[in-house]
Every structure is written in structure tokens, then in C-alpha cells.
Structure prediction request, 154 residues.
Amino acid sequence: GAGTGRVRLDAGTLRFENDEAIDFKNDIDGVGTVAIAGSSGVRFKGDISKLDATLELASSVEFTSLPPFKTISNPTGRRVTLILAAGLGNVKWDARTLVDGSDRFKLLIGEGTTLDLGGATLDVRTALKGSSARVVNGTLRESKPVRDLVLRLR
Prediction:
């Protein structure tokens, strides 16, 4: 574990390579990269609102506070899920930060949480159960893939 106290990034990378889901309770601030590189998800339970970072995803991530990431990327190309926990109230997020691999992202917004997109459009592969109804002040655009498309030339 990371022990107790604040984790400060100084142009470095905080990398999670966990095989089981974990709750990360430390507050994080500073500038750098947070990489979720393991096969299981990470749930951030500490204050990350003062973090100026890029998020690299290879599995699921759950936020219990505002996700402040300037860019969110999916360098592995795996399907990943962004989760906003239940009961957060109104969360303001500039959806333009989601820039890389949006066709691989699923979005889940918990009960009692509303995502305010600030007039932006958020492109995701799938909005999971009830998430679309919890988006305000913007557009949630799903790009579910077309399956079993067969072209027959005559």
C-alpha cells in the first residue's frame, strides 16, 4: 500500500498494477500521470481535486470525487469503464478531457450523481444502466459498434 498521507506527483507517474480491485484512500496532488495498468480496477476514495494529471487506463476506475484529469487515454485499447460513484451530487466535468479511445470507454454514473458536462459532448462506447438520464448541460453520445454487418456483392 501507499501508507497514509498525501501522495504528491512531481512530473512522475503513479502506477497501479493490481490484480484485484483496490480502494486507494490517499489524497493525491501535483503534476504527472496516473496509470491504471493492472487487470483490476481502482476506486479513488481520497481527494484528487488538486491533481493536474493525465489518466492512462487499462481497466476500470471509480471516482468518489471530481475527476480532474486533463486527458484520459486508453493506451492498451482494452475496453474500460469510467465510474462516477453514487451519491456525489452534481459533478462538473469538462468532457473535452476525454480525448483518446472513446469508442472503448463505458460510462457508469451512480444513483444520486449528476454529471454536468459544461455544454460539451462526451463520446463513449456505452452508457450503462441509467447513466444517460444523469447527464445535464451537455450531450452524451454513444457509439455502440455495429455487429454482424455483412456486405454481399452481386
